[in-house]
Design goal:
Blueprint: H1 2-23, H2 26-58, H3 70-93, H4 102-129, H5 153-165, H6 175-178, H7 182-188, E1 205-206, E2 213-215, H8 221-234, E3 236-238, E4 245-247, E5 256-266, E6 280-282, E7 286-292, E8 305-307, E9 311-315, E10 318-320, E11 324-326, E12 339-349, E13 352-359, E14 363-366, H9 388-393
Antiparallel strand pairs: 1-5, 2-5, 3-4, 5-12, 6-11, 7-8, 7-13, 9-10, 9-12, 13-14
Helix pairs in contact: 1-4, 2-3, 2-4, 3-4, 4-5
Amino acid sequence: MVSLASLSVVLIILGCAAYQYFRGTFVRAFATIIIAVCASVAAFGFFEVLANVFISRGADSRFLSLVPWAQMLCFALIFIVVFGTLQTGVMFLTRWPVDLGFLPERIGRVVCGIFLGLLLSGFLLTAIGMAPLSNKYPYQRFDGKRHKVLLNADGFATGLFSIVSRGSFSGKRSFATIHPDYLDQLYLNRQISGTSILTGKSPAISVPSKQAVWPAPESINEKVNQLVSELNRQGKLKDELTGKSISMPGPVSSDYQPTIVRVGIKRSALSTKDKINGGAFILPQLRLICKQQGYGEDPLAGAGINIYPIGHLKEADQIQVSTEIKIDSKNDFKDNAREKWIDFVFCVPRDYVPVLVEFKQNSIVEIRPSAIVTADQAPPPALFIQSPKDNNDSK
């Protein structure tokens, strides 16, 4: 659906340019761009907070069907309210038009209209990407290769806020660290229809306060290299049980350290309601956020990178790749355990260190520096075997 999304970008840009040329002024057109940027900053900065309020209350109510749409609706709501409020103020302050001359006015209006259209189309495509739709809508971003819409409109919109978030507006949480390559996160998160894009409980995962990250044993290096080679060649990993493939971002850097990260899926995140079930997920819905070594005291400032798992340990020296993983509340939680621990395998660039683990669209947990240990300090492996029955039941 790249053509349809690209057509939408063209139509929005042409519409904005035409409107500004025939009905606007250069001053108002320029002010509208500033307003759109301010509205996007507010939307990107607060949509998750507002969405989590609805998710936590809607998961056990009659509004359950709206919960998967919460992030998109909150993003759109904040953007529209802020944009409309500021635009009304500007219209009031510019009741008396300022004419800069024939050419400056005509050229300036069109240029501002084109830029405004690029911004608005990018925000629209980003919002649609948050929705629980098929991976083909608004366009197929991954099918073994990464695709972009015309003019990379949504990449421009999210990238603009990432730049802003790393500066003086970042506060304690930089969007460029919390959500690096945000569009990749969104589209990889909804590759399989029927698998929830978020969870009713947040956070749905945890990591140990000690012994959470350590170098993978050398016994699995050959398998890791094989999987990396396959990923770099095809852009996909194949499920060993079903034979189906799943798209993953690549290529993986050649200078990496196979790393084990222990992640616990919380019992409270499991649900019989598929729309919010944290017990069924695909590998790309789990991601490790890493930052360059020596990043400073604040792990949430600056910018990070996404690292996606290539599998999990099914034996101490064996990796299993599963298209979809399903956790069973009866069989996988022994002795009233609160978490089901799984050791996932990541390929971490050697000059980077893990700082966060993210799960689906609304769960983020921090990795303490003290929880990153050496190979000789590694705990016994937390093994998980995905059975063919569980895999089929999850469809």
